[in-house]
Amino acid sequence: MTKKEAVAIFKAAFAASVWGASFIATKVALQGLSPYSLIWARFAIGVPVLGGALFFRRQWAGLPAGILPSLALLGFLGVALHQWLQSVGLLTAQASTSAWIITTTPVFIALLGYLVLKERLGSAKVAGIAVAALGVVVVVSKGDFSSLLSGRFGTVGDFLMVVSAVNWAVFSVISRVVLRRCPAALMMFYVMGIGWLFLNVPFFLLGPGFVDFIDLNLSGWAGLFFLGIFCSGLAYVFWYDALEVMEASRVGAFMYLEPLVALVVAALVLGEPVTFVVLTGGAMILFGVWLVNRSSGK
Which of 167, 168, 223, 277 has the most CB atoms lying inside 10 A of its own CB? Predict the structure, then answer.
């Protein structure tokens, strides 16, 4: 292994770990902020961090003609809507449960590829989708399968997280087309910036505005700056750095760290229980996602 590869592995692992911890940081910040204030401030911090990194690393470039409408759509889906779903969802959903649910995004990407792009679904992918779906049921129900029949299945936040996973899958599929015309890091900067502009409307019209930040405690500020600087800024820089050195499949495998980091950090910081049932459901989700991601598709 070369030094360059070792650095790329560190950066990919760092980014995935940071994104795993983001669920806990969001829960902490939401104790003092409304969802509107949180996501507005997160990207008010994150966009300059990512833009500054691009500028100082001389990765800045002009945009291809006619690409702004696509970037606007991605900004709405990937920032405004996605972050609203997750922030509101985390008001009632556990951080660790949310991370397990979001891990199913590749499953929804495969389904969208089949339904919209007419991509083939092999037997391994079908099995993976089924196993991952059952894993989500196990995680959300905490093993209480009777809740499926009694109407006590999951929280509103759990269902918002499922919608968030579907939404991110749609975002990812559209991104594939845009990435053919625009470098990944540059695309993400504009997507974040435009998404942040969308967030200004609900922040000033529906949210409490700047008043929300007056009484925010130290842990709330720490969670907010962690989300802005690391999750919405440096993590993306490191992720795309890793993609320049390693194959996408190798980098993507580090996403399996995300729910595991969330599980550990949620237990340490929030006191969320780590149960055998949840670990079993999580293992099913990871195995199902692995089957879906197999290149053979058989």
Answer: 223
